[in-house]
Amino acid sequence: MLRCGYALFWLLGSVLLICVVSPVKGEAVVTREGSHLKLSESSHSNESQHGHSSNITGIPIISFKWHHVETPYLVAFWVLVSFLGKLVIEANHHVTSVIPESALLICFGFILGGMIWAADKVQTFRLTPTVFFFYLLPQVILDAGYHMPNKLFFTNLGGILVHAVIGTCWNAASLGLSLWGCQMGGAMGDLDIGLLQYLLFGSLMAAVDPVAVIAVFEQVHVNDVLFIMVFGESLLNDGVTVVLFNVFDAFVSLGGPKIDAAEIIKGIVSFFVVAFGGSLVGLVFGLLISLLTRCTKNIQIIEPGFIFVLGYLSYLTAEMLSLSAILSIVFCGMCCQKYINANMDENSVQTVRYAMKAFANGSETIIFVFLGISAIDKVIWVWNTGFILLTLLFVLVYRFIGVFFLTWILNRYRLVPLEFVDQVIMSYGGLRGAVAYGLAVMLDENKIKEKNLMVCTTLIVVYFTVILQGITMKPLVMWLKVKRAAVTEVSLLEKLTNKMFNHTLVAIEDISGQIGHNYMRSKWKYFEENWMSWILMKPSARKKQDQVFDVFHQLNLKDAMEYVTEGERRGSLEFVRNENSIIDFKKKSESESFDINNANMSNDHGAMSTTSRDPIPSVSLEMHEQIMKAVREAEAINAHHLLDQHLYKSRKQHRHRFSRSHFDINRDEKEVQEIFQRTMRNRLKSFTSAKMGVKPPKTIVKHTQKEQQQKMPNGKSMDKAKTSYSGDEGPNSVSFVHPAGIENPAFMPDLDPMDLLQIPPWLGESELDSSMVALSHRAQVDLPRTPSNLRRLAPLRISTRSTDSFTLENIPDTQQMDTQEEFLQSKLTT
Amino acid sequence: MYNYKHYCKNLHKYIHIVDVCFFTVSQEQIKNLYQRFQQLSGNHEKISRDDLERIPALNNNPIRKQIITAFFDKRNQHQNDVGSLDEIGFEQFLMVMSHFRPVNSTATEEEKVTVRKQKLRFLFNMHDTDNDGIITLDEYRTVVEELLSQSGAIETEVARSIADAAMLEVASTNVHSPHSRPRMISMKESHLSILNRFRWINIFSMMSIRFLDMNSATMRCGKLSS
């Protein structure tokens, strides 16, 4: 054990050195994670050793108790090392864009392993099956299940299942039989492996590894269908492989002669029991989680924990019942995702997401590093050229044959057939990984003489597929011009049209009297909405379930955020003022709207007049004056609102109280409020007085200038909006320009009385947070407006001019619908 | 059960339609459809609105009205006709159904374009109720409201806002529309192509149905007649 320690220190020193000398070599740091794995093994012996090492006579001031902390220390240290390794690897994008991260991590593992070997002359750290299957794999799979795009998965479920079950069996059988045949033919020299053992080997080599597949495909961005086919297959066939492995393992233990038809049938039955039983356990736990999260309102801080703990428990339970643990945790994640996302608090959902990713990514890193470390071990290396090369060849060839054959069958039933290039990528994406290695290590040396050869072959296949195929995957995808996943923005239109499609298809199936996918889906959805959601979801959450609405909400949030950022950037007051001026114009065009032609004319006129720099017609002045008196008081109130909402909030944020169970800002500090209100009142007074001295025509929008400004902070979306807009709407926008712009907001408090009717953008946003649609009480009282406020934010994102959507916001209540429509029209028609 | 004689007599005609419109539908499938047609119409030669409205499975469908209307819309008959029919025969029925055919992998690029256009047109016609070639905001709102009416959580007001926002999205993508009419946000027919700009209109997968070989019509026959 001491050796361990020394090796570790040596490692640390050298790694630090390496890090300093050359960042690239720093990858070596990752290797330490290996010790993490070994630790759990060695920990038993440690415990017996440490504790009584002291023969101290007096009271020591400081004592060095390495053994006391050794195990957890090493674990933590290895985690740290692998993370550092990842850090170093990811620091350089030139390398990772060519070589996938997983391959780099494995290489990093080689280096670390070499260092340990050099220090200890023995490989102290290895990836053990226990550590791998109990501590590293579950979170990766849970993450995969939890983030599974359910609809896509179930749409392609048929294909995935065919590949996962039949494909895997085919791979296992063909590999085993071919190798056996080759041995019979004398291609591999003298090996003590029987047919059953070959089949066992075949079954452990058969599975495509989800960890490796995700790692590679994540960076390649192939299209959705292809991705889900490969990924779904790799997830499900893990379960299949483990089952196959267990069955063959049992057969091997039984020995050839004892296997009769009954045993084989038992094997087949157990296959189904294990697979479906595992999925069932997962479903049950998923439902359990969903139910639990219904009532965790009062323990929000720890509610994310339930998902992890119960997910892990589902894994362990399945393992305990000797069912497929992997399938169990996959289905657990898939089943609960919808409900917990709806039930839990927004923050908790985020926490779950991030924690899930953190765990998964972390253990993925550790897994790869340890795969590398494990290689540097003289004990396992038994070379048999024939066996190893033939395995490699067969693995590759049979994968291709299997995929092409199965896809050929599937394509006869698929609406959109998988293309040839897709099939190539699917075949080529058959990466083997840590699951195969874990299973290989689990082989019983007493029963299988050539265990080391198998382990070493497995490792070589893993390295070959992950490193070589991983590296060549990207060029291949490019070269074959595989359809890539398009980067898309969410859009309402998309959701609506999708919904439309779905309903149409269901209706057509109904009319034509078929029972097809759409029919099934609609039935399931109906059942799900009426029963499952009712049981598993909070009543409050149920309302928000509509997808379209969800997108709408998201878009609104996004707009609101941009709006606020914009406001903050420009200084909120000026922002408000600008809005007003646009309203003015808005009002004007509306008043003219009885005569459309007229309005158009004025638009045109405005466009013309831009050159003459005398743009805004006098109408706005009149409007302004008319409204001025009536609204003066209201204006004050509104200003109060704006400021109150805005400024007070920012204050609040600084007032945290420490509490382990609550994140609240302390609200009950009345003094603060009191002081604040007084200040506010003072300020308001100064505003009103300032306003009196102000001349009305200052309703200025410096549109062109503003637009340029907008581009900068908001990055792409604004930018895009701008360019798309500039094409046709140029004249219209120019018509807003007022030459007499006044720059200093301080001297120009809200000119326009109208603003009392509008909801300040940030107000709208804060409400979005709390209640989606409904306005806060205050807002409802003071501003008798409907949720339609929020809608007006939506256009902002895509609308050609963001300011336009602001104007929409400002239109008074009664006329809002009409005005808006007209406004939109005028906008569009130009 | 069904009117077999009539079916046989007209088979050649149907097959012609099939040749024109369906690339991938077999005779067997046509026969199934014919059976279903007979079943819906109660062994008459024509089918009417009421017949379709009586289908129980359609009751849950929020856009049931639009769908049924689409069946009786002359625009969906691949002829340059406008207006709506009271009754349709099997031929017209097939015509409408043909909008949902999947596309052969062997189809040429040109055929694919045509089919895509037809599918989009069908969808467009469902929105454009007064068939002036323009989907106005009002028309769109109506559809969206009905579409969203199913889930009780969304009120009409919100549905309207969603429709508006979606329309604005259209408007913002719709760059080249110098002459569109005032007072109307419209999705013009000529701009159907904008729909293509979105990745999601993988129209072939979105709007195709695999017409089954087996006779599943009879499977639901009992339900219908009961």
Automatic annotation (TrEMBL), chain A:
- Does the entry feature the keyword Transcription regulation, yes or no? no
Q: What is its main location?
A: membrane
What InterPro entries does this protein map onto?
Cation/H_exchanger_CPA1 (IPR018422), Cation/H_exchanger_TM (IPR006153), Na/H_exchanger_3/5 (IPR018410), NaH_exchanger (IPR004709)
Annotated family: Belongs to the monovalent cation:proton antiporter 1 (CPA1) transporter (TC 2.A.36) family.
**Keywords in UniProt for this one?**
Antiport, Cell membrane, Endosome, Ion transport, Membrane, Phosphoprotein, Signal, Sodium, Sodium transport, Transmembrane, Transmembrane helix, Transport
**Coiled-coil annotation: which residues?**
none
Query: How is the protein disposed in the membrane?
Result: Multi-pass membrane protein
Q: Which reaction does it catalyse?
A: Na(+)(in) + H(+)(out) = Na(+)(out) + H(+)(in)
Protein's UniProt name: Sodium/hydrogen exchanger
* Localization per record: Apical cell membrane; Early endosome membrane; Recycling endosome membrane
From TrEMBL, chain B:
List, alphabetically, the PANTHER family matched.
CALCINEURIN B HOMOLOGOUS PROTEIN 3
Gene3D superfamilies for this protein: EF-hand
Localization per record = Cell projection, Lamellipodium; Cell projection, Ruffle membrane; Cytoplasm; Membrane
What protein does this entry describe?
Calcineurin B homologous protein 3
Q: Tell me, what is one Gene Ontology molecular-function annotation carried by this entry?
A: protein kinase inhibitor activity
What lineage does UniProt assign to this protein's organism?
Eukaryota, Metazoa, Chordata, Craniata, Vertebrata
Task: Report whether Amino-acid biosynthesis shows up as a keyword of the record.
Answer: no
Q: Where is the EF-hand domain?
A: 115-150
